[in-house]
Write a structure and sequence with these properties.
Blueprint lengths: L1 E6 L3 H12 L4 E4 L15 H6 L1 H15 L1 H4 L15 H25 L3 E3 L3 E5 L2 E4 L3 E10 L3 E3 L10 H4 L9 E4 L3 H12 L4 E4 L10 H13 L3 E3 L2 E7 L2 E6 L5 E4 L2 E4 L3 E3 L6 H4 L22 E3 L11 H16 L13 E3 L5 E5 L2 H8 L4 E7 L16 E7 L5 E7 L3 H13 L4 H7 L6
Parallel strand pairs: 1-2, 1-6, 2-3, 6-16, 8-9, 8-14, 9-10
Antiparallel strand pairs: 4-5, 5-6, 7-15, 11-12, 12-13, 17-18, 18-21, 19-20, 20-21
Length: 445
């Protein structure tokens, strides 16, 4: 009998299992990645390490390193080829070397911490019993579901998802990205900067759920870089490499692409878990419902991460939530995961970071009359070396009029992850506009 058995070897599952094992608990973890749409699979570490945060950020950095070539010659460096060709194969090999090393580290760390690792598909027999690939059955007092999510698919062939992009064995060439999600924009951004002609089509707006002023600014900047973006556009057909699409108010268009990347969102990876056998309930959008204690409707079964409904689906929150869960289970802690004011960054060519509410959500909650919006436009010092749009970088604070509390922080500019993370502690502590004014020059007027 295990004290804790974890299903899923991603961020939340790894954090929780190792934390529990360090406390002397008998812990097991089952992790099996079913082949994706094009047969892509991977080892321990979950989406983030293998086909998400880590390789995405490495591709983004690779693109940035190419982009700064336009600045190097202007400050004295010689031998710079501003328009030099990019070697896709070399990038793939280097990124895979890094992600595989990280994955091996995660598997070794499970063993080093005393977690029993099972590379098997797991499914429920009942709320205390789990079947492992028809090989064996195990029992556990408490069970954590942390199976993550996978890309949503469309009813066509001859396309890839973000899971396939980071191991693509050929240069992508002219690429169509379908979707307006952050994954779509991030991938389109680095592909274009790496030198591949890129187009985005989305049936609605960009970055639904994020501040739309900043979403539109991101789109504007990406179009300045040469990425063609078609909003309010329906995909009509994919036939081999020939794509038919129609933008609202226009006739259908047919265009050939070497690569078609679908990034229309993600869905919880619950297939084959047999949750019904354990009595675990899901929401209307097929994610697991939990309470403030990360507990499902079954008192001994918990769920964390991307498979859960109504929480931010981010690696840092999943890791912290996993550790907090273990402290509550085995160390008499009362500390709950606080999902409010979580810092988030989107790694588009011009990075976007935010904390708290978008302007749209703030108006919905408090009404426009109860808010003050402060914003500014700035030009980074480095942008004086080579010309870049001087009117695109900006910050915005959304402030409650009566309390002066900052409800939303938004930043569009270089190094958004570091900038935004630096403000996250202040936001968690309930910073006011006066606090911002007292600690730095008045960025936000």
């Amino acid at each position: 009998m295990f004290d804790l058995f974890v299903i899923g070897g991603g961020s939340a599952g790894l954090a929780a299992s190792k934390a529990a094992a360090k406390l002397g608990k008998k812990v097991g973890l089952a992790d099996y990645v079913a082949p994706g749409f094009n047969g892509t699979t991977w080892g321990p570490g979950g989406t983030c390490v293998n086909v998400g945060c880590i390789p995405k950020k490495l591709f983004h950095i690779a693109a940035q390193l190419g982009d700064i070539r336009q600045d190097q010659g202007k400050v004295g460096w010689s031998g710079i080829e501003e328009k030099g060709a990019h070697n896709w194969k070399q990038l793939i090999e280097r990124v895979q070397e890094i992600t595989q090393r990280f994955g091996k580290y995660q598997e070794d760390s499970l063993k080093d911490n005393g977690v029993q690792y099972f590379n098997h598909h797991a499914s429920f027999v009942d709320n205390h019993t789990i079947q492992l690939d028809k090989q064996q059955t195990i029992k556990a007092k408490d069970i954590l579901i942390a199976v993550g999510s996978r890309p949503k698919l469309i009813p066509y062939k001859n396309y890839i998802t973000s899971e396939d992009l980071f191991t693509l064995n050929r240069p992508p060439g002219k690429t169509l990205v379908i979707g307006g999600s952050y994954v779509a924009l991030e991938c389109a951004g680095f592909l274009n900067t790496l030198g591949y002609q890129t187009k985005i089509i989305t049936r609605g707006k960009l970055l639904s759920g994020f501040d739309q002023q900043f979403a539109n600014l991101i789109g504007d900047y990406m179009q300045e870089l040469g990425i063609r973006i078609h909003k309010n556009t329906q995909l009509l057909n994919i036939d081999e490499n020939k794509v038919t699409y129609q933008t609202s108010g226009n006739s259908a268009q047919v265009e050939n692409f070497e690569t078609i990347l679908v990034a229309i969102g993600r869905e919880a990876h619950l297939s084959g878990l047999n949750l019904i056998n354990a009595g675990v309930k899901t929401s209307f959008n097929n994610r697991i419902k939990t309470d403030q204690f990360d507990r499902t409707n079954m008192t001994n079964i918990y769920a964390l991460g991307d498979c859960v409904d109504g929480i931010p689906h981010l690696t840092p929150t999943a890791i912290m939530a996993g550790r907090k869960l273990v402290k509550r289970l085995y160390q008499k802690s009362n500390s709950l995961m606080d999902y409010d004011n979580v810092a988030t960054t989107i790694f588009t060519p011009l990075e976007y970071g935010c904390i708290g509410l978008s302007e749209e959500e703030a108006i919905k909650r408090y009404s426009r009359d109860n808010l003050k919006i402060y914003s500014n436009v700035f030009r980074p010092v480095t942008w004086n070396i080579s010309y870049r749009n001087p009117n695109i970088c900006r910050g915005k604070l959304i402030v409650h009029k009566d309390t002066d509390k900052v409800l939303g922080f938004h930043y569009l500019g270089p190094e958004a992850a570091e900038v935004t993370q630096g403000f996250s502690v202040a936001m968690k502590m309930g910073a006011t506009k006066a606090d911002f004014d007292n600690t730095q020059k008045k960025w936000f007027n």
